[in-house]
Design brief:
By secondary structure, this protein is mainly α. It contains four helices and no strands.
Length: 83
């Protein structure tokens, strides 16, 4: 649970508004968020498959992380230099 709070606090800050307005200026941070979400979801998926008490994550947390990564990837301008 603490990691969720930390991640939410890191991602929901006023700079998100600036990133929305000028995403190319923050391309490396956005790409980091995309890839870290994918890696985090992959690790959680492996843990959920190995531990039956973690199966609930396959319904909520894991798809949400993949969805965040997919949406950011889709919205990221295609001429991003930091890819």
């Amino acid at each position: 649970m603490p990691i969720i709070g930390h991640t939410a606090a890191w991602k929901i800050v006023p700079r998100d508004v600036i990133e929305f307005i000028i995403p190319l200026a923050y391309a490396s941070l956005i790409w980091f968020t995309i890839w870290s979400s994918i890696v985090h979801a992959g690790i959680m998926l492996a843990q959920a498959l190995a531990d039956h008490s973690e199966h609930a994550n396959m319904i909520g947390d894991i798809p949400a992380l993949f969805l965040v990564a997919a949406v950011l990837w889709f919205l990221m301008p295609k001429n991003s230099p930091a890819q």
